[in-house]
Amino acid sequence: MLETLPPRAHDALNSTIASLQAALAADGHSFDLAAELAKRHLERFRRDQDPRDLGQAEAAIEPWLRQPNPPPRALVLRARVRQSNHLFASALDDLEHSIRAQPDNPDAWLIRASILQVQGHYLEAKQSCGRLILTNTVIAGICLANVASVSGMADQAYLLLQRLAAQIAPKDSLYPWLLVSQAETAVWTGRQTDAEKFFRNALAANPRDAYLRAAWADFLLDQNRPREVLALLAGDIRNDNLLLRLALAEKQAGLNADLARHVDDLGSRFAASAERGDRVHMREEAIFNLKLLNDPEKALNLAEANWQVQKEVADCRILMEAAIAARQPARAAPAMIWLKTARLRTPALMRLEARLASFFLEADLALQATRSVSSA
């Protein structure tokens, strides 16, 4: 026995999953039951970031995936699993097949837009968002705003989200997604006060969402508020992403005893992931190596490999930070080009951009001086 996993808490989602598992055990031929169970596992993965839910989601629909022509819904569910594992090419392949069989499936178009956005294919992502207009104009609007926010139209995206907010009630299932979109766009456009308001409202609406808590922790760390991160994440050491933020907060707060223990734990987890061939968390591993192990060269290698897979704001940032720390500014060129196109005003990114520009200026001046000496 390697480890004893904690039992699931008795909350509504866990109870629903348990009920569906029992029902499917009694009627193993019901695709509707299997698909609903897979959906709930994916919902819990979004909340808890426990990779076991991804395997359980795919296992629930596996008999139908073996069919020559799997149901479109099964393909969309598997695409979500593959998306979460950063298997973007195979996820897009599943979505293409599902869309061919069911062209008006809104989930397929939304997932496709999300993947294409992460990959930096913004025109195609916008086109996928556009296919949602006839189904749900609000979902289409949030989708388009999210793409616009990182593709040169961040201010317009912020205004669009404000307008959409008037159409979404706090009890609507879209409300937490809207608030997270607003919070992140506010950060990226330099509206820090607005961002904090949106983050707090989002946490009130969805307090257990792991992605949201990580984003809020990053916001607090940027503002040098580690004690708030400690209070937020003290009970979440099983989640790798949240443990990383907890360790960063401990370093910022000077809590070295807890920090050493958590750094050792994170090192073991990243090593185990590498042995499995799991490279989902390369961004986080790069941050770990740069900020907690003080190994900028390894961090830069990881950040570059990560950039080949995904191109989001956080990916841009760690590539720039690692290149500066390693004193190899030229390797941050892809991130600088992306940032110029995205036209974001995030204070942290603007400071990094200025530092990289000064590196290039120093290099130009040194080159000119060398040429002058040579010609003399």
UniProtKB/TrEMBL annotation:
SUPFAM superfamilies: TPR-like
InterPro entries found in the cross-reference section: TPR-like_helical_dom_sf (IPR011990), TPR_rpt (IPR019734)
Origin superkingdom: Bacteria
UniProt protein name: Tetratricopeptide repeat protein
